[in-house]
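#help-structures
NK: newbie question, is this the right format to request a structure? protein is non-specific serine/threonine protein kinase
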Amino acid sequence: MLPSSTRFLLGRWRYRLLSPPSLARAGCLHQTKLLSSSFERRFHASSNGLRIEEKPAASYNPKYEYIEECEELERYCPGGYHPVKLGDQLCNGRYSVAQMLGHGGSSTVWLASDKIQQTLVAVKIKTADSDDQEEDITAQLHDMPSIRRLEDVFVEQDIHAGNILLRLPEDTRRITDTATINQRFGSSFREPIVRRDRLPLEVGVPTHVVGLASLFVRSDEITDSHLPILLSDFTSSYCPSKTRQILSRTLPHIVPPEAFFIDKHNEKETLSFPSEIWTLACTVFDIFGSGGPFSVMGGGILQDQACALGKFPEPWWSQWEERAEFFIEDGTSIEFPNSRDRIEDRYDWFVTATRRRYEMAYPEEDEKKAFLEMIRPMLRYVPSERASIQDVIDSEWMQEWALPCRRPK
């Protein structure tokens, strides 16, 4: 029996763009953020990386044996994930589940064949306890050419470089039988779910985890046939003019610094469009290179941001309790006082060096200069001082290198 109000979102399947630059992994429409926390909670920087405010890592007691790179199994509960197995028939048999494509905090995503349209679709199965706003926001954006529209939404009774999509070739979209899908993409592995106390699985928990479909396309093999590039997954979207947002619900390594210092009692402090400019900068950097400019490894995201961009402004610097673990008061690193680790250095490593390693063409100095001149204003600490989206569009790099790729030749 399905949890009450489990929602199914349907869309045409698409490739998903993924770093490193030599290899773009295929993904799907409405694929959720694969590296995001399974619960929408606020991240904090600490010497142990990220910790979650409502549930410290030390108190977390998993119920099931560990399985690498799978969804959070504890979310198979009332109001949580809906159990799905390969071969399941959805919407009165119209959609047949073939492979798993992804998972996030409020949904799982599956590749399925549409028996009526004779094509592949991505089925996003949302949890009953998730926010309903995604369908509403998608409907408001339906006329925008870069937004992927929903093909179908149905309810059974009782969108992070992962949301940037490329067109799937026509011959692949028309594959509908499971045997051919597995022959083309490989069969998904299945691993049994086992409780740590060895008790039987509860009702609503699947017997096996299904591995993600391994579908790849080299980024240097992307052609006009893969266009247009589309955006998907608006699960955590909000309207700043209507909603005060104080919790960042994006991937940990692209969370803007202001998210850690917002005073929830001060109604004037909120996340808004400047916060999205920060995450956009990290995403563009990630796509252009083999990783984003910041990492949650080591001392955590705030420590890495301060290493690359320098000391935080007040009062953030004083409010950051863990700063003394990594920096002296002038912002100099304690562990590496003489090292160079600025945005320029990270560009050289993640963009230039990586492309050389994969024997790919890499940007010349004039493009590097223009790219960094666009990125730096997007990564200013003070939100009001960041570049606007119009500034980004008008930048030299966007006009001379990025946008010409879409112009008719």
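mod (FA): yep, format's fine, and the tokens are attached above. The radius of gyration is 22 Å.
NK: thank you!
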